[in-house]
């Protein structure tokens, strides 16, 4: 839904006030950060409504959020400002996991990943089954060890990469979504992944992923009709 001119003007005024508060807070509490503004901004989806999280330093140790409902601004660590934005406890599992997800994301460059930072983050507890596409050449390894990007062997990823694209397992919501299957230039398998209780996060490409290995006891190899043969 488009905002009216009045809403746009009001939002611009709120953001201007927030920028002033941010500048004053930085000058008093973190002058080493400087006044250049956020080094990265990410929209975080929460049950209480989306909010814009601003990282003021490269480590995410100093962040800012313009709070909703005229509550001013919040400054501090990732977890501190996320807790204030959502009015949750700083040790709430969702708040903690948002901090961990963003910390992992800041380390993507250190693994030589071609992915940049995300513009938005959605994080939720998984329920039921999601699905992962892998080369059929990996089948025996997956049956024995499960899905683990650290065990990537000679078979390339479905997009042709020879190293893990991210430290995590890419997932799709439907077994009938053949995007990854069609992308591969080789025979593939589709695995059902039981994600109950696992934290699922939105990836930089719009797909979901889980940032932990998945043991073989949580996997199911789907029947042959879900597999793509070499053409």
Description:
- The structure is a single chain.
- The chain has 231 residues and is an alpha+beta fold.
- It has 2 domains: 5-106, no CATH class; 122-226, ADP-ribosylation fold (Alpha-Beta Barrel).
- The protein is built from 5 helices and 11 strands; from the N terminus they run αββββααββαβαββββ.
- The protein has helices spanning 5-29, 78-86, 93-106, 139-145, 179-183; strands at 40-45, 51-55, 63-66, 73-76, 120-125, 129-135, 169-171, 188-194, 199-202, 208-210, 219-221.
- The protein has an 8-stranded mixed beta sheet with strand order 4-3-2-1-5-9-10-7, with helices on both faces. Strands 6-8-11 form a 3-stranded antiparallel beta sheet, with no helix packed on it.
- α2 packs across α3.
- It is elongated and about 60 Å long.
What does this entry show, briefly?
The protein contains 5 helices and 11 strands. The chain has 231 residues and is α+β, with helices and mostly antiparallel strands.
Q: Tell me the helix content.
A: 25-40%
- The chain-level structural class is alpha+beta
Strands of the biggest beta sheet: in what spatial order?
A: 4-3-2-1-5-9-10-7
Instruction: Using the coordinates shown, work out and report the CATH topology of the largest domain.
Output: ADP-ribosylation fold
**Which CATH C-level class of the largest domain is it?**
Alpha Beta
Query: In sequence order, what are the helices and strands, one letter per element?
Result: HEEEEHHEEHEHEEEE
Query: Count the helices. How many?
Result: 5
Total beta strand runs: 11
Shape: elongated
């Amino acid at each position: 839904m488009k905002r009216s001119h009045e809403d746009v003007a009001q939002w611009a005024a709120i953001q201007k006030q927030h920028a002033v508060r941010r500048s004053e807070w930085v000058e008093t509490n973190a002058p080493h950060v400087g006044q250049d503004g956020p080094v990265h901004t990410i929209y975080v989806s929460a049950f209480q409504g989306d909010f814009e999280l601003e990282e003021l330093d490269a480590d995410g140790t100093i962040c800012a959020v313009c709070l909703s409902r005229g509550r001013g601004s919040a400054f501090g660590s990732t977890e501190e400002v996320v807790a204030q934005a959502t009015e949750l406890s700083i040790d709430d599992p969702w708040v903690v996991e948002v901090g961990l997800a963003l910390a992992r994301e800041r380390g993507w460059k250190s693994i030589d990943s071609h992915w940049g930072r995300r513009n938005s983050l959605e994080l939720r507890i998984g329920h039921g089954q999601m699905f992962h596409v892998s080369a059929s050449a990996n089948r025996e390894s997956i049956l024995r060890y499960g899905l683990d990007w650290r065990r990537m062997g000679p078979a390339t990823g479905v997009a042709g990469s020879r190293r893990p694209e991210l430290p995590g397992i890419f997932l799709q919501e439907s077994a009938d979504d053949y995007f990854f299957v069609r992308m591969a230039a080789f025979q593939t398998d589709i695995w059902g992944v039981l994600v109950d209780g696992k934290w699922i996060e939105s990836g930089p490409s719009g797909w979901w992923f889980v940032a932990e290995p998945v043991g073989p006891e949580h996997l199911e190899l789907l029947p042959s009709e879900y597999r793509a043969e070499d053409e």
